[in-house]
Every structure is written in C-alpha cells, then in structure tokens.
Design a protein that fits this description.
Distance between the termini: 39 Å
Strand content: 5-15%
Structural class: alpha/beta
CATH class: Alpha Beta
Number of strands: 7
Number of domains: 1
Largest sheet: 7 strands, parallel
Shape: globular
Helix content: 40-55%
Length: 303
C-alpha cells in the first residue's frame, strides 16, 4: 500500500480540543444503565475480552490453563459466553491453537519485537510470519514510537503496511502505545496513520506503559474511526487495552462506542477489551445480577 498523496497535509490539519474531549467523556460516565441492559452489556463485555499472557515466564502449561479459562469462564453457570481471543507470544501460538481447537476463541499473537518495537524491519517481519505460520488468527503489532515522535510518519506508515502484507489472512491490530505519545493530537495522528496503512483494528496500549486506555484516548481513536467510516464506508475495529479492570468502566466504554460508532461495532468482530483482569469482575457482577448475591473471588481462577 502506498502513502496517500495528501498524507502530510492530512496529518498537519489534525488538532484535538482536549477540553471538549474531557467534557464529552464525562457525559458518557454519567449514563444510568438499567439492570436488563446491564445484564446484556456484561455478557457482551465478556465476549469482547482478549485474555492475555505476555511474560518471560510463560510456559505451555500456563498458556493451556488460560485457553481453558477462555471457553470455560464459569463451569457451573450456564449461559456464560466465551471470550473473544487469547493473546500470546509467537512461540506459544501453536500451543494455544491446539488448546482452542473446535472452539470459537481466536488466537492472537503480539509481534514486531513487542512491547518496545526496537528492532529491525527484518526481525519484525520474521516475528509476524512465525506467528501466522503457526496459526495465529490475529496479529497485535506495535508501532515505532521513536520514529513517530521524531516526525518520521512515512516510516511508521510503511512499517504498518509491510506488516499488514505479512499477516496474510490474519487480522492486524496496530498498537499505538498512547502512554508514550504524550498528547491527544499525537494519538489522533497515529490513529490516522494506522488506519490509512491498513489496520483492521487500532489498539491503545501494550499494557506495559501507563497511562493506557483512558476514556479520553479511546474517544479520540473512536472519532478517527468514525471519520474514516464517514469518508469511505469502511469499518475499522477498536481495542482499548490496559487499565480497564472494572465492569463499570467497561460499560462506560460500550456506551461511548454505541453513541459514536453505532450498534454495528458492538460485537467482538469490531470491538475488544485487552484486559484479562476484567473478566473476573464482570463475572462477579453478572452472577450478582442473576442470583442477588456476590460470589467469593475464590470461585474464579486467577488467570
């Protein structure tokens, strides 16, 4: 994919009203949600979660345990959906793929020298192809934040486009690592670059840097998706990741998605949460709505 002719002009004209964003986000956080809608929303949140293990101490056993949880969130309660995907390092993709055989749960893999992205293009392409060859359904790549902050926007575009090509049939999520971009103006520019370069999803964070998926950042990225859709009719997915650990915050995010993008985005095909710790809180809230009482956290797996 080649850089659009008006690429630099487009980026230079982007400016975000930070005060306006904060006021709009504050309104989303005051929405009241009735119990019936809350029950439906909590199940939707569960089905949008990407469970993740991305540690140096990851073992095949740990990955298999996470995969079991992905489609057995609560063994004694019927009607609980599975999560959307599990996300692992490329070396663990084959193990996850085998463990999730005959389920609806996708296997995602980070690539491009995650989380810092500080490596050569050759290594990043090899990283991506390894994951795809082992069966990854989705690739979560990181952009080169240093290049972006140095104003080398064409480099960032070309890198994303090359990784997109290497993905083949796998869908590409582009991680902006918004905690390192400093301003909402930069978040909007990075979103535009990723979308124009072929991202299937744009994603806030690796989960390794704070702040991560603030509602202000997610709002800014959703507006980039909306503007692209209004111009082209093409949908792009969104994945806030890092820092979303409560059901209340997750539901606020869904309200924001519905009001900005519409109901078409309210499925795991177009919206995800990168928040493994969120699953247990959602389960506890869901079972509270159905039974009238909280279950102890001892009833839920840690990872």
């Amino acid at each position: 994919m080649s850089i659009p002719r008006d690429f630099n002009l487009l980026l230079s004209n982007l400016s975000i009203d930070k005060v306006g964003v904060e006021e709009r986000v504050a309104r989303f956080q005051t929405r009241s949600i009735k119990n019936e809608a809350k029950h439906q929303g909590l199940k939707m949140v569960l089905n949008m979660i990407d469970l993740t293990t991305l540690e140096g101490k990851d073992t095949p056993g740990k990955v298999r345990q996470m995969c079991y949880k992905a489609h057995h969130l609560h063994d004694t309660h019927s009607g609980i959906p599975s999560v959307a995907a599990v996300c692992v390092y490329p070396t663990m993709v084959g193990i996850a793929k085998e463990a999730l055989k005959n389920t609806s749960v996708k296997v995602a893999s980070v690539s491009t020298a995650f989380p810092a992205g500080q490596s050569s293009m050759e290594v990043k392409l090899t990283d991506t192809r390894l994951a795809v060859d082992r069966g990854a359904d989705e690739i979560d790549m990181v952009i080169s934040r240093g290049k972006f902050l140095a104003g080398e926007y064409a480099f960032v575009f070309d890198e994303i486009a090359a990784i997109k090509e290497a993905c083949g049939p796998a869908r590409l999520k582009v991680i902006l690592e918004t905690g390192e971009l400093s301003t909402l103006d930069n978040v909007r520019k990075a979103s535009e670059i990723a979308i124009l370069a072929g991202a299937d999803f744009i994603k806030t964070s690796t989960g390794k840097i704070q702040p991560a998926a603030t509602m202000q950042v997610t709002y800014t990225m959703l507006m980039a998706i909306k503007d692209h859709y209004d111009k082209t009719g093409l949908m792009v997915g969104m994945k806030p990741a890092g820092g979303i650990s409560t059901s209340k915050l997750a539901l606020h995010n869904l309200v924001m998605v519905k009001e900005i993008l519409g109901s078409a985005w309210l499925s795991n095909e177009w919206f995800r949460f990168g928040a493994s710790s969120l699953a247990n809180d959602v389960l506890m809230q869901l079972l509270k709505l159905e039974s009238g009482r909280y279950q102890s956290s001892d009833y839920f797996t840690i990872d």
